[in-house]
Amino acid sequence: MRVSSRPRYNLSAQMTPLSKCPRGLILIAIFKLLKGILLLSVGIAAHMLANKDLVMQAQHWADLFRVDPHNHYLNVFLEKLTTVDAHKLRALSLGTFIYSALFLTEGVGLFLRRRWAEFLTIVSTAGLIPFEIYVLYRQPTWSRGFLLVVNIAVVAYLIRELRRLTEIKRTETAFGPEGSQK
After folding, report:
1. What's the whole-model pTM score?
2. Residue 28: how many CB atoms within 10 A of its CB?
3. Distance from the CA of 44 to the CA of which of 7, 13, 64, 162 falls in 20 to 30 A?
4. What is the distance between the alpha carbons of residues 172 and 182, in angstroms, rounded to a whole number?
């Protein structure tokens, strides 16, 4: 059996230097990674709380943070917690784990400048825009409108970036990396 001394993958040839990456892609990647980590922590918390008394846990945290026990919002929150059971928490946990995996995959892929990650981000973000429009129509708020505009801007930016990179690759294929015709 012959062992090669060459590395199996040449990572430096595959990755674009961070200084050459468009800032927009890096910002979107960081945002996706942060959302993925946040959702992962929510999923873990929901999973850990699935077999506990939620009302007792919420009262414990309210006592720790010295929230007035007669606070209207605390009482409304505690009342809503009585409708949440272990099955709902497990479903919430599973959903947040799946969504977290999607965001983490998008973030890492965008950070590594993978075209599949740009396509995945476009499809997953654009796929939710009709739902966001429906929710905004039914219950309009400034924050929902802002998030809709941001998501549309992200999709438009990624489509423009994909087209630009496709044109660069097409030019490099036709003329070579230095611009001289093959």
Report:
1. 0.74
2. 23
3. 64
4. 10
Tokens 């400034």 belong to: 142
H-only helix segments in 50-182: 54-64, 72-81, 86-111, 115-138, 142-175
Q: How far is CA 77 from the centre of its chain?
A: 27
CB 159 within 8 A of CB 126: no
pLDDT tens, position by position, 11-59:
444 555 555 668 889 999 999 999 999 999 999 998 988 888 888 888 8
User: What span, in angstroms and rounded, lies between the C-alpha atoms of 67 and 75?
Assistant: 11
CB 104 within 8 A of CB 124: no
- What pLDDT was estimated at residue 55? 83
Delimit the domains of the chain by residue range.
Answer: 22-113, 114-182
